[in-house]
Amino acid sequence: MALVACGGGAAAPVTHASPGAGVAAVAVADGTEQLIAATQAHLRSAPDDVQALDTLAAAYLQRVREVGDPSYYAKADDLLGSALGLSPHDGEATLLSGTLALARHRFTDALAWGQRAALLDPHGAGPLGVITDAQVELGRYGDAVATVQQMVDVRPDLASYSRVSYLRELHGDVAGAITAMGMAVTAGGPVAENVAYVQVLLGNLSFNSGDLASAETQYQAALQQDPGYVHAEAALAKVRAAQGRVGEAAALYRTAVATYPLPQYVIALGDVLTASGDSAGAAQQYDLAAAEDTLLSATGGVDVDQELALFDADHHRDLPGALAAAQRAMRDRPSVQSADVLAWTLFQSGDLHGALDAMHLAHRLGTRDALMFFHSGMIEAALGMAAQARDDLSTALSINPSFSVLQSGMARSTLEGLSR
After folding, report:
1. Which CATH number characterizes residue 332's domain?
2. What is the domain count for the chain?
3. What is the torsion angle, in degrees rounded to the nearest 10, for the CA atoms of residue 373, residue 376, residue 378 and residue 381?
């Protein structure tokens, strides 16, 4: 399968648009919790069993994906350190260390671990997945295209196809991204959660293109694959919000947050409450989201600079801190997303010309992302660049008229003002 005809500019989990390499290998019929209990029991009598240490570390990483408890990252880190201490050339522990670094958004470290894993397993696909994800987040898109093509050639499966999809999406080839993600779903995987995850990603591609019906079909399919799957429930909430059914959206988000209080879902709930006029309830959710980001950083060792900057810029919370975080994100993970977040944070902080420069970097791949075009349109409108602003705001709304429960209306009202 050739990837490279993915169009647009020079050649960005999660993110890692696919399940982390090595994690799916721990699947067993009785589930992750049972595997963890059995492996822990075995290690009490055989603490130097390197394979068991690897298995338990992988199960902990899978458990984060299932329940969102960042404390498992530290536990996995300790296990992997022990495994590598006993067996410095353990390929599985090396690969899982790369997966852990990706999950913590430590992409330079992830690239180093992935490259080390590739030396230990030169014919394996897993290391190539870690390398691809790191290259994407580090803004090395040409390298990422080459690496993921190699990965597909080695093993055309859920993990490789989903990465192909993400790179095509970043380069503006949405139709090609949908095709590749459909292949990922068809390929399937050993863990129900992994398959449900790529079904949600396929639905997201439809949602981001404004096709709410196709998006809902995929989200419902994910729930059939993995009943109660929190990411599918939150995605359905997003559809309901886009349909104007904010009460239903809030109920679905509350269910998702009760299971898995991921900051992005807590923020989304706050936005839905804002849209419904419940400013006090929204403020509670925004405070919870800030606390969750702190927990991810303090307990899980996750770098949340990019995510925190966007949240604070969107909601006008601590703009100096948001700008500092956005600048760190651009330094540590110079992707098109980081450039977009920096542009928006500079705009909210009053640096319009700096925001425009950063926005040019964000658009360098030709990504068809409504939020990016909204950001650039608002920056251009503030600079008096009326024609460019009209083009970008119109593009945002043509890509997805419902890209944000709060900002879609802002895009429309600003566009109407520019058209008078």
Report:
1. 1.25.40.10
2. 2
3. -120
